[in-house]
Amino acid sequence: EVQLQQSGAELGKPGTSVKLSCKVSGYNIRNTYMHWVNQRPGKGLEWIGRIDPANGNTIYAEKFKSKATLTADTSSNTAYMQLSQLKSDDTAIYFCAREGMAFDYWGQGVMVTVSS
Amino acid sequence: DIQMTQSPASLSASLGETVTIECLASEDIYSNLAWYQQKPGKSPQLLIYYANSLNDGVPSRFSGSGSGTQYSLKINSLQSEDVSIYFCQQNYDSPPTFGSGTKLEIK
To answer: Which residue of B has its CA nearest to A6?
Structure first.
C-alpha cells in the first residue's frame, strides 16, 4: 500500500527556516516525481515545485524559487522541503504528493505556523 | 501560467440529486485535467484523471467529461459523504495549476 507520511507541525519564527519531510512506503521513491503543494488557511491549492528523486532535478514555481528547496534521500525513501526566510504569509498546510496518474497519493499535510 | 476558472464557488444540493462542477482553462489543455475531493481537515484525494478516467476505488457516481478548454465533474445520486471541496487541476503544462475550488454542501 502506497503511503506518504509527513513530519509533524512546525512553529517557526520570522526569518528562520523549517525543513519538512515526506517518507514514502509501498513504492520506490526513485520511480516518480514528488510534488509539494500548499494551502493557506481557508484557501485553495498552490503548487510549489517538484523533484525527480532519481537524479535530484527540481522545478519550482516562480514565486517559490527563493523560498523552497526540495531534496530527496533515496536510501531512506524520503523527500524534503526546506522553507527559508519565513514570513507570516508562509503560514499554511504543506502537502507532498506523488505524481502518478495526476497527483495520485498525498501526504496528510503538515501545518507550518510562522509567528514570533 | 494556465489559469483554471472553476464554478460555482459553492453549491448546495439535496441528497440523491445530480450536481455538476465546471472548470475552464485559459488555453487548450488536451484533456490533461484532474479532479480532486478534499474533505474537511484531510488531504485532497484524486477522483478523476485525464478528464474522464475514474481513479481506483472512486464510486461510479462520479464522472468527468470535457475537452479543449472546458471540463466538468458530475456527481450522480448525491450522498452525505460527498460533502467536500472539489478542485480541478491542469497537468498539461508546468506549473500545474488548480481551480479555486467548489464547496459542496447538502441542503
So the answer is: B43
What's residue A66's pLDDT?
A: 96
Residues of chain B that touch chain A, judged by Cβ-Cβ distance less than 8 Å: 34, 36, 42-46, 49-50, 53, 55, 87, 89, 91, 94-101
User: Could you identify the residue written with the cell 528523486?
Assistant: A53
All three cell numbers of A4: 506518504
Residue count (chain A): 116
For residues A90 and A38, what is the distance between their CA atoms, to the nearest angstrom? 9
pLDDT of A90-109, one tens digit each? 999 999 999 998 999 999 99
Q: What is the CA radius of gyration of chain B?
A: 13
* Residue contact A46–B96, C-beta within 8 A: no
Interface-testing mutation among A40, A103, A105, A111, with chain B (most B C-beta atoms within 10 A): A103
A22 near A37, Cβ under 8 Å? Answer: no
Sign of CA dihedral A20, A38, A97, A5: positive
Closest CA to A107 of A32, A49, A18, A25: A25
